[in-house]
């Protein structure tokens, strides 16, 4: 069996919280076959190059946190070769077959943000072949054209373009915009071949020369002074100079200042700081939320909801040895509100309008040491309070341990972010595409509530009272949800939370 055959037949497996998943190495290879060509052309003993695998559908790069098997050590099927940090979790990378690691190609600083398909180690079957790979390196793909190769071409182009066939005098060869652009950069563009009337050099000619890498000579002070003197030698200027007494001093032409002559002051800063490198999860969060805020038209709607009835229901359930949190009740109420107002449970489909989801899958934001992750409760509207409570605790625990499977945090039709337990009264959340809305829940605050509804049949009207009020702010995609729909959703949510007995049905 040749080395390239072993690449296609060997298998690797990766493990996360849901179990062990096995896949052939050929499924991880890039489509251009570069890794396969390296093995075919290799003069080393038969070996296998293990590439960086795509452990999730959205994974483009990965970081090797640690190697569990060192160079020269053998491994058996099921052994963990290394831990790979993806954009959402850290996953154990397991081997399906037996082998010996001849050399580790990527580790430490070289194992950060590796693209999928990059070789990470060399594996052999015979222990005697390990020493042959002591100095083994994987050559990077050569770029299509290097700057050194393009330099002669640029020089030749420069020589051709510098030849001027202008029909005007040298002092008028540059158009005003071209003169300003070249002199502001300290360059002499009078030698360029102009495309303007009479062969004059335009601003476009100067820009094209700079883009093509044409080397322009530096602008000398003498040439600038001469051009200024010639420009000033016009009939009108001559008349003015004749009327001016000879004793009047003539202003000297300005001297061109190059960037090297500018002295940049040194600014001293006090204090010390430490640079902290972002992990893959935080990089992905920053990229996606920046894209969401810049491309998705957000609008916000806020409702204040009384929690007194919710707290009463919690006490009754606690007496029945059923423990649920306020967050569990909010998730249940949101699922029922989405069932009543399905337009919010939708997403924007480019070119096809709005895509309405047939299932209600609520994502719950969970803070982890590595960043924010949103595990999903599938078919939330079909779950009872006890099921929601147990599932949220299980997903939150495994999310903090980095043991979630990709299908447990990818997707979802609606998101809830609750910062009430952190003492936050209200905030605005950023939509997580492709979802069209996210609910930002704050903590309960005691407020004086005044009943503004007058009942003429009652002699004594309801008096002002103190109640526990929660702020719920909906961030919605205006392309999918309009203001009236957001009002209907928040109205349904308020109804379920103020009448919590409906949540038990």
Structure, explained:
The protein is α+β, with helices and mostly antiparallel strands and 505 residues long. It has helices at residues 3-9, 34-40, 147-162, 176-184, 203-211, 221-232, 235-243, 280-295, 308-319, 326-340, 385-400, 483-498; strands spanning 11-16, 19-24, 48-51, 61-67, 74-75, 80-85, 90-95, 99-104, 114-115, 119-124, 298-306, 346-349, 353-356, 362-364, 366-368, 371-373, 376-377, 414-418, 437-449, 465-477. The strands form 5 sheets. The chain has a 6-stranded antiparallel β-sheet. Helix 4 runs parallel beside helix 5 (203-211) and helix 10 (326-340) crosses helix 11. The chain is flat and about 100 Å long. The two termini are 64 Å apart. Residues 1-9, 16-34, 140-164 and 224-251 have low confidence and may be disordered.
Task: Please outline the helices and strands.
Blueprint: H1 3-9, E1 11-16, E2 19-24, H2 34-40, E3 48-51, E4 61-67, E5 74-75, E6 80-85, E7 90-95, E8 99-104, E9 114-115, E10 119-124, H3 147-162, H4 176-184, H5 203-211, H6 221-232, H7 235-243, H8 280-295, E11 298-306, H9 308-319, H10 326-340, E12 346-349, E13 353-356, E14 362-364, E15 366-368, E16 371-373, E17 376-377, H11 385-400, E18 414-418, E19 437-449, E20 465-477, H12 483-498
Parallel strand pairs: 14-18, 18-19
Antiparallel strand pairs: 1-2, 1-7, 3-10, 4-6, 4-9, 5-8, 6-7, 8-10, 11-20, 12-13, 14-17, 15-16, 19-20
């Amino acid at each position: 069996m040749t080395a390239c055959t072993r690449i296609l037949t060997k298998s690797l497996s990766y493990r996360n919280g849901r179990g062990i998943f096995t896949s052939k190495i050929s499924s991880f290879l890039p489509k251009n076959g570069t890794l396969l060509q390296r093995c075919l052309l290799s003069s080393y003993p038969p070996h296998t190059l293990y590439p960086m695998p795509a452990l999730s559908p959205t994974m483009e790069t990965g970081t090797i946190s640690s190697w569990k098997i060192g160079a020269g050590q053998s491994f058996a099927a099921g052994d963990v070769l290394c831990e790979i940090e993806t954009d959402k979790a850290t996953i154990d990378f397991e081997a399906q077959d037996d082998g010996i690691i001849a050399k580790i190609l990527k580790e430490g600083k070289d194992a950060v943000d590796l693209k999928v398909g990059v070789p990470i180690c060399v594996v052999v079957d015979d222990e005697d072949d390990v020493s042959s790979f002591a100095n083994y390196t994987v050559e990077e793909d050569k770029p299509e054209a290097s700057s050194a190769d393009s330099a002669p071409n640029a020089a030749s182009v420069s020589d051709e373009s510098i030849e001027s066939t202008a029909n005007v005098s040298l002092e008028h060869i540059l158009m005003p915009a071209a003169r300003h652009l070249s002199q502001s950069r300290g360059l002499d563009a009078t030698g360029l071949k102009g495309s303007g009337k009479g062969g004059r050099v335009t601003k476009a000619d100067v820009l094209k020369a700079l883009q093509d890498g044409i080397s322009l000579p530096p602008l000398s002070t003498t040439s600038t002074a001469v051009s200024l003197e010639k420009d000033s030698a016009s009939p009108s200027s001559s008349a003015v100079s004749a009327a001016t007494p000879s004793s009047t001093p003539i202003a000297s032409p300005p001297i061109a200042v190059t960037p090297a002559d500018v002295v940049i002051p040194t600014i001293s800063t006090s204090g010390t700081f430490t640079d902290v490198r972002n992990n893959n999860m935080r990089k992905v969060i920053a990229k996606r939320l920046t894209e969401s805020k810049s491309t998705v038209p957000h609008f916000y709607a806020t409702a204040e909801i009384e929690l007194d009835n919710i707290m009463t229901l919690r006490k009754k359930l606690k007496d029945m040895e059923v423990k649920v949190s306020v967050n569990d009740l909010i998730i249940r109420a949101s699922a029922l509100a989405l069932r009543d107002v399905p337009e919010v449970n939708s997403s924007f489909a480019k070119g096809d309008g709005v895509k309405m989801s047939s299932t209600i899958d609520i994502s719950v934001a969970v803070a982890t040491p590595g960043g924010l992750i949103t595990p999903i409760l599938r078919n939330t509207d079909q779950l009872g309070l006890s099921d929601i409570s147990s599932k949220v605790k299980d997903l939150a625990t495994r999310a903090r341990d980095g043991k979630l499977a990709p299908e447990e945090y990818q997707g979802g039709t609606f998101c809830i972010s609750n910062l009430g337990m952190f003492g936050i009264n209200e905030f605005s959340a950023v939509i997580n595409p492709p979802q069209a809305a996210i609910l930002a829940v704050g903590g309960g605050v005691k407020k004086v509530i005044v009943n503004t509804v007058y009942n003429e049949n009652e002699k004594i009207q309801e008096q002002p009272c103190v109640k526990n009020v929660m702020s719920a702010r909906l961030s919605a995609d205006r392309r999918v949800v309009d203001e009236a729909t957001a009002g209907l959703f928040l109205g349904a949510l308020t109804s379920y939370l103020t009448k919590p007995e409906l949540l038990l049905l």
